[in-house]
Amino acid sequence: MMKAPFAVWTGLEPATSCVTGRHSNQLNYHTFDLFGTLTLVCVRVSLNCDAKLCAYLIKSNRPIQLFLSTFSISLKLSKRGFLSTFVPVKNQSMHLEFEKPIVELESKLADMKQLAQQSDVDVTDAIKKLETKITTLKKDTFTNLTRWQRVQLSRHPERPYTLDYIYEISDDFVELHGDRTVKDDKAMVGGFATIDGESVMIIGQQKGRNTKQRQERNFGMANPEGYRKALRLMKLAEKFNKPIITLVDTPGAYPGLEAEERGQGEAIARNLKEMMMLKVPVVSVIIGEGASGGALGIAIADKVLMMENTWYSVISPESCSSILWRSWDYKEQAAEALKLTAKDMLEHKLIDGIINEPLGGAHSDMKAAASQLKSDVLKHIKALKKLSEDKRIQQRIDKFSDMGAYK
Amino acid sequence: MAWFKRQDKGIHTPTEKKKEAPDGLWYKTPSGNIIHMRELKNNSYVCPDDDYHVRIGSKEYFEILFDDNKFTELDADLMSADPLKFTDSKKYPDRIAASQKKTDLKDAVRTAYGKMNGKDITICCMDFSFIGGSMGSVVGEKIARGIDHSLKKKVPFLMISKSGGARMMEAGFSLMQMAKTSAKLAQLSEAKIPYISLLTDPTTGGVTASFAMLGDFNIAEPGALIGFAGPRVIRETIGKDLPKGFQSSEFVLEHGFLDFIVDRRQLKNKLTTLLKMVY
Question: Which residue range forms the structural domain that includes residue B27?
Fold first, then answer.
């Protein structure tokens, strides 16, 4: 049936149509529609997986010929099990004020490397020097971050969100939708996933990468139906005896008119009480912002962990500033006063651990951040599984009951 | 010609020499009538002319609910620490001290047990006058201990909420009080001891999002503001004016989050009737 695919590849034979695409910055692909019978896909740049491409191939419902222009491609077919409409999107690079000196040096280094390639001038020494300089600067900057800077990092536009983490750490994922009462809240996502062969339930708030997505995800601010969806999924996990992982990243529960009508307060309160009594192990991770009841509503867990550059408190520094200082300008002071970083929270025994981020923050190396999260969370789940149900619940209740400072 | 004419001109009384009628002897109702405080007190602090429920504190609620105003207070001396060394325009301990002086309370909640129409009950009541009834470690701990008392004695638990939400000056600690109180309520629920949550004006924020909404029976006083986010925040978020009656007790009842609204004058007897049926 096929004449000679190579002919198409070299442009000798006419293809009836050709789609060229590029996304995730990882992948360029060309799909050729040959005589309406065969789809020929030429992929450049190695990649691990690509949901959109898989979806395209499956949808085309034709024999598929894969062509690799570079040989290192491994199209992980297991990602076909990634049953979610989510596709990772990368933003255009954006830098925070304190990241800029590092970025400048890095671009200088890139220039120098290019120069070294193009001319015979020996700049190896200079490159080495610059590289050390960058590392030192990075270390200096990222070990001495102020609380406000950590808040900024937690909201970095390139920071990995819940579905990014799920995408990175799970082999398979089936996203589940709806609270069975009102609707499906896109700001709260969740579903069963397989991580290293183990089935777990992962739930978390989801933010959007671009304007359209942000709107769809309501900036990660869930409505009551989001919290009820989360609870429904947790009960499902409990029924099938699967551990629960929640990933927290929200500027707060949505303060809207309909949210009040549908009982935002009640939805969160119910989650707090029900999560206390869950029979399965629960691990929560603050992966970005952990604002008040909106965060706590899915963060009642046997182990509550915070990523290094995140915050978790009763109010955002901005709102705190506007209430106590009656102006939005004191957010830095408010951040300091609230003691809202992972280190502070651990010091006060309000959380159980910190997950290290790669130098430069989770956004600088998403894969490394995800793999650290995965190994830490799995370690905790493994330990928690050794306890009996009753013991776990009792420990959970005792842990939260002990929190407080009074005389 | 005027009926009264000041004969001596240029009389000035310095402020310190001005005589004042004793404060709080008279109360002006929202309809504009002036009534004597005694009359208001005898009417459970409800204005007789328009049924307006005046904001009252734990002292008044205990008086209304406990038989002969006899009760034993629990953890009366528990006080706030300053775990975060929190300072805004004022140091947190100073703020606490000022509030204690002004209100004669130790913190924003009081717990007591006693008899209500002859039946044992534990009552936890918040005081809005103390930093907006905000919930910090002391509030969380006192409620938790109140629930523990109910668990130990196997008596019903009544929570009277009146709060703006969590206390910012204890940041993470305040937040975790939501978890703590919910944990205790989960235990109370397992023990099948009735928990009645009475929401009064106002009940918002972290209090609504934890113990206030977790009652076996959620009830409210008429006309109270009840919500998660405050009306100002919602208005700013959606950029629209809010409908009339939004977040009132009646609104919350209509949307299915309350069992009933109760007039304060009937509160004690209604609670007794209800508890008799279930416990």
Answer: 11-54
Query: What letter would DSSP give residue B219?
Result: E
Cross-chain residue pair A405–B137, CB shorter than 8 Å: yes
**Cβ neighbours of B239 (radius 10 Å):** 6
- Which of A256, A339, A403 comes nearest B176 by C-beta? A403
Q: String of b and e for A302-327 (b: at least 16 CB within 10 Å)?
A: bbbbbbbbbbbbbbbbbbbbbebbee
Q: Tokens 């991770």 correspond to what residue?
A: A285
Q: In one letter, which amino acid is B86?
A: F
B228–A340: do the CB atoms touch at under 8 Å?
A: no
How high is the pLDDT of residue A85? 80
From the list A255, A269, A405, the residue facing B210 with the nearest CB is A269
- Compute the nearest-CA separation of A318 from chain B (Å): 12
CB contact under 8 A, A265 and B81: no
Q: How many CA atoms lie within 13 A of B235 on its CB side?
A: 9
Window 294-323 of A: residues touching B by CB (8 A cutoff) are 296-297, 300, 312-315, 320, 323
Q: What are the two backbone dihedrals, phi and then psi, of residue A158, each rounded to the nearest 5 degrees? A: -100, 5
Count how many pairs of residues, chain A against chain B, have C-beta atoms within 8 Å: 191
In a domain, B4, yes or no: no
- Number of folded domains in chain B? 2
**pLDDT the model gives residue A94:** 84
Residues B33 and B63 in one domain: no
Closest to B147 (Cα-Cα) out of B230, B214, B92: B214
**What pLDDT was estimated at residue B91?**
93
* Subunit contact A397:B168, Cβ cutoff 8 A: no
Of A263, A277, A292, the CB nearest to B257: A263
- B2 falls within a domain: no
Residues B202 and B162 in one domain: yes
List chain A residues with CB under 8 Å of B173. 348, 350, 403-405
Query: Given an 8 Å threshold on Cβ–Cβ distance, is B209 in contact with A276?
Result: no
Q: Are residues B23 and B160 in the same domain?
A: no
Q: Is A218 part of the contact surface with chain B (CB cutoff 8 Å)?
A: no
Residue B1 lies inside a defined structural domain of this protein: no
State the complex-level ipTM.
0.88
Q: Are B218 and B195 found together in one domain?
A: yes
Buried b (16+ CB within 10 A) or exposed e, A244-278: bbbbbbbbbbbbbbebbbbbbbbbbbbbbbbbbbb
Identify the segments of chain A with pLDDT beneath 50. 1-27, 37-38, 44-52, 54, 58-59, 61-63, 65, 68-78, 80
C-alpha to C-alpha distance for A254 and A294, rounded to whole angstroms: 8
State the pLDDT at residue A114: 85
